[in-house]
Amino acid sequence: MWIWYIRGMSEIQLQGNGFIIRGWKKGDEISLQKNANNPNVSACLMDRFPSPYTMEAAMSWVDFLIDQDPVINFAITIDDEVIGGIGMEPRQDVYRKTAIIGYWLSEELWGKGIMPEAVKLVTEYAFTHLDFIRLQASVYSKNPASMRVLEKAGYVKEGVMRNAVIKGGEILDEHMYAILK
After folding, report:
1. What is the pLDDT, as a whole number, of residue 10?
2. Are 52 and 40 in contact (CB under 8 A)?
3. 3-state SS string over the chain?
4. What pairing do the DSSP bridges indicate for beta strands 98-105 and 134-140?
5. Quick check: 155 and 163 in contact, CB under 8 A?
6. What pairs with residue 78 in β-bridges?
7. What whole-number percentage of the chain has pLDDT above 90?
8. Looking at the DSSP assignment, which residues form a beta bridge with residue 12?
9. Using alpha carbons only, what angle is made at residue 123 by residues 9 and 179, rounded to the nearest 5 degrees?
């Protein structure tokens, strides 16, 4: 892994095996909308992830993240096409050294090892360049593939919150995973 980090320009690139994780930029909207607009992608994400994923949603997302400082939300790209996203949401108050990590990937690329590597890269970035001591992720019970992603990236299941989530009218358990610095 290599990290190219230019603080003044907020440019970060994390090099994966056949993909790059980088900050969002103008021009990402078309491939973002194309690859995020899939009900199978949004099925295991929070409801705030739009479905259908419109061009307006893509434009709004890119505009919102274009000048992040620090960069905590990234596009996953192949040949500069957005094929997924991964980011951290810092918690507040007594949880201020913890962030929640979340991710999605174009369905055509599921099962190819991209996401476990992407989670590892962003985790290393978070612990090396940011002030976090803990990253955590929650996974709905109907998404065992995402549980495997986190386990392959070194995260440990800490518990199951029973009947904690309602997604698509279905009551689901929420599995909590975490990794420490």
Report:
1. 52
2. no
3. CCEEEECCCCEEEEECCCCEEECCCCCCHHHHHHHHCCHHHHCCCCCCCCCCCCHHHHHHHHHHHCCCCCCCEEEEEECCEEEEEEEEEECCHHHCCEEEEEEEECHHHCCCCHHHHHHHHHHHHHHHHCCCCEEEEEEECCCHHHHHHHHHCCCEEEEEEEEEEEECCEEEEEEEEEEEC
4. parallel
5. no
6. 81
7. 91
8. 5
9. 150
Return the higher-pLDDT residue of 16 and 10: 16
- What is the pTM assigned to this prediction? 0.93
Q: What domains lie within the chain, and their CATH numbers?
A: 3-180 (3.40.630.30)
Predicted local distance difference test score (pLDDT) of residue 22: 96
Q: What is the mean pLDDT of the chain?
A: 94
CA distance 12 to 21: 8
Q: Please give the backbone phi and psi of residue 108, each rounded to the nearest 5 degrees, phi first.
A: -65, -15
